[in-house]
């Protein structure tokens, strides 16, 4: 009995491995294409061994108007938006996590509700509103909207992480006369470093990849982040240089992949986000 | 608690977040509910006037709108309910049994697809499904008929693209859920002779039903608001054969300059989203 169970288990592991490898190969095809094409002097649309290895594609796109300006714009928009989100979320999470109040529950329910609203649906009214208050085509307007759209989920995550920091540590500080603000900055936030990192990276990654918000709220080409410029730049050329497009995609995607790996490493496996939103 | 000044001081840190949320989220939603009932246009109009439910009546008589509703339904069912959800569960279940290197490799690849910016994912899948693309190359090699996927079956192509991009989330949620099922339970069932499908149906699925609910809600909400992926791959075309509601809304508001009408569509989308959102909250009810 035990031996049949053991052999069955080995057989099952082999079957599972095979199944996963097939799935991984299917998922990998588009990724392999972009990597091979980025170094292929004659890239086309299918996965193939490159006709020699070249960095010409990277050379061709590493210019101010194609790469540097859009990436800098992305950095300003997403950096600004993330900073604002994290600061506001940490401040808001503190009283929600630490003090009892009749308002906590309704507030958290509203936040949870807002977390799952389709932001895409409100972009038309946001556009109309931004035209009226002169925030259209401004970096600050886009940053503010980015922050607001990311806030509900960030507050929710931040509050859950903060609940994990024992209150006793702060109580000692309070008796020594520390204000709530001091204990938040000096005690709570340092103790929930990984949580703050998750919120920061998650917000940044979401904004970095977001296409629709800057597409709607920014108009001047000079201000466009990479998510929009890549589309305009390559979409408006009759003949697309696929190798260059691939090279740009690699450059534009690398920061978020690195950030994800960094956070996943520190949290052991990267399953924290899945755990944070589990039901 | 009884001292109002102290409770005010305690609530003060919430203020910046509340101001941002009111101005940039609640404001636009209220404004959305208002202009959906007007005939506001993009240009050349001094005043917009209140038109009652006219925009909604137009919508339900508009074939293009009904087409978009149908495509959104197909897109959501194929890519979210069936695709991401089932594939995510299958991958998570296989990962429970697979060897560690294979698990890490697969997880890495699937998660990379998820972390990539939306527009990049759109380009990669555009290349994959194009007539000269990788999918047809594989079909040719297997002597299977190839076709121009983005023209013949655009809605399926974008649905598969969304599966490719979104499965990682379901996989992560289900991995976390499956890890919490005690080993003894599945082993006991195995010794009692319950086969794979029966174990899945009678033991595993009931034990992770809360995660299934959460995952379905969040997937559906994410899928309802997909814009960039479809925009990059097909622009909603050819014709309007892959024009889901967000793309229809965009076209009405900006290409046809009918902000009022576009917003009415947006409001409907928002209402559908709210229903899912409320269902999701009921699932999480115990945690707040």
TrEMBL record, chain A:
It holds the Pfam family BPD_transp_1. It is found in: Cell membrane. Residues 71-263 form the ABC transmembrane type-1 domain. The keyword Cell inner membrane does not apply. InterPro entries: BP-dep_ABC_trans_perm (IPR050901), MetI-like (IPR000515), MetI-like_sf (IPR035906). The chain crosses the membrane at residues 14-36, 71-94, 106-130, 142-158, 196-219, 239-263. PROSITE patterns: ABC_TM1. SUPFAM superfamilies: MetI-like. PANTHER family: INNER MEMBRANE ABC TRANSPORTER PERMEASE PROTEIN YCJP, MALTOSE TRANSPORT SYSTEM PERMEASE-RELATED. This is Carbohydrate ABC transporter permease.
Automatic annotation (TrEMBL), chain B:
CDD domains: TM_PBP2. Keywords: Cell membrane, Membrane, Transmembrane, Transmembrane helix, Transport. It is a multi-pass membrane protein. Residues 70-280 form the ABC transmembrane type-1 domain. PROSITE patterns: ABC_TM1 (PS50928). The chain crosses the membrane at residues 12-37, 68-93, 105-129, 149-174, 216-238, 258-281. It is found in: Cell membrane. SUPFAM superfamilies: MetI-like (SSF161098). InterPro entries: MetI-like, MetI-like_sf. Belongs to the binding-protein-dependent transport system permease family. This is Sugar ABC transporter permease. It comes from Streptomyces lannensis.
